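Entry 14. Structure prediction run on the chain below.
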Amino acid sequence: MTLTFLGAAHEVTGSCTLLEACGKNILIDCGLEQGPDEYENVELPLAPANIDCVLLTHAHIDHSGKLPLLYAQGFRGSIYATAATADLCDIMLRDSAHIQEFEAEWRNRKAQRAGKEMYVPLYTMNDAMGAIKQLVPCDYEKETQVFDGIKIRFVDAGHLLGSASIEIWVTENARQEKLVFSGDIGNTNQPIIKNPTYMKQADYVIMESTYGDRSHGPRPDYLNELTEILQTTFDRGGNVVIPAFAVGRTQEMLYFLRQIKEEKRVKGHGNFSVYVDSPLAAEATQIFNENTGRCFDADTLALVKKGVNPLYFSGLKISVTSDDSRLINFEKEPKVIISASGMCDAGRIKHHLKHNLWRPECTVLFVGYQAVGTLGRSLIEGSKEVKIFGESIEVQAKIKQLAGVSGHADNEGLMKWAAAFGDTPKGFFVIHGNTASCETMAQRIQTELHKNATAPYSGDSWNLSKEKQIAQGSRKKVEKAATEEKRSIPAAFARLLASGKRLTAVIQQNSGGTNKDLAKFTSQIEALCDKWQR
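Output returned:
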């Protein structure tokens, strides 16, 4: 039984881990990196066509966003996830593919005018639809036999609708080992969804460490803080612009705003409008409403039973079309604009920042994590001028953060989750955190829980049966490179190479076929080679 760390190793995004057991190759998550890389990531050490299945902790793109690419490169196995995660992936992967294709189209218009090489999208809508078809919905707390000797169970991680930690039991050579992949561990007492589940036993624990070196501090009074920001901004005649992840954080903001309106906390501005400017957020909100029984916490369920929709209120306006979006900034009355992306690097939020950042009466309110290198991080760190769509914008709006609004457990929450395993684990692997976070958390586990803990790098590999490391990956930091040139024609060639690997895997799978079928297959390959050989 071998465990190889590929993504989110000494980094926060791009989660991907390979488990080889019982003759099967299993990926746990297959996420897209968001923001710049810090360390070089090793490539998947086998052809995607040879991956037997994927276990998906939740729908966020840094955990699911490369599934369409995996499909494009030949993967055809099942993707196991909770039912709510499968529902969310249906919209989120299509949205991600749309962004990839739109960005390629926009870049290629510029490239054509400048006589530069054409830009190739990472994957297409067809790839996303192919991956979506591989999703297998699973219930929380129900054991599922995925292969001989391998069974899994999803338990609520309390991070996002449908999010899960995954228990994996592997039986090889009459010996059973249990692995637990934490996924992203949720903060406690969040609105709408349940608290994370604590497990009592595991042989090996693979856990996240996003906030492994810091605390959220005392729980803020979200309602009062948000009310004050709304009141002071509206009194100045400005808008409150909230960059929010379309799935999860947008719904939490709607939950708070409904209560603020219901209790008439904002004075003098009547039934102020709240615009949700994101088709994805609108679809996601519908999925939240369809998963009340499976995923909502007791307080939210109580509202539902009273006939109250916790995510809807008077004055809520959903913008779907581009025309709807453009008209928002022509509405002169003070308002709330919630738009994606949450880190301000793509999507409609950039248009709203362009219209509001230069206005001193406005407020830009951040309610989620901002990765290093993103526009959101730049604004939080005090940039006085930023570029949006190639135009320099002076930052005069108030930049605020709603402290403590996080879908992730902080360092104490992580330690509480890890301590619940008691004396059972042989070791912890700490991932999904920057260097300071993952190494701090690993050190705390060693010191306070007296357990072996390590923070692996991409490419590090362990033979768990022999309880030893068998390969060391890269420790090399990524050199700063122009992101504009990150994917051009070489990406198309990379996709061709991936198709070649898939062909090799298909050939291997046909071992033992009839002479007639193999001869036909050989002729087809040779004809293809004759056509393209240069």
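Residues 493-532 form one domain.
Filed with the rest of this week's runs.
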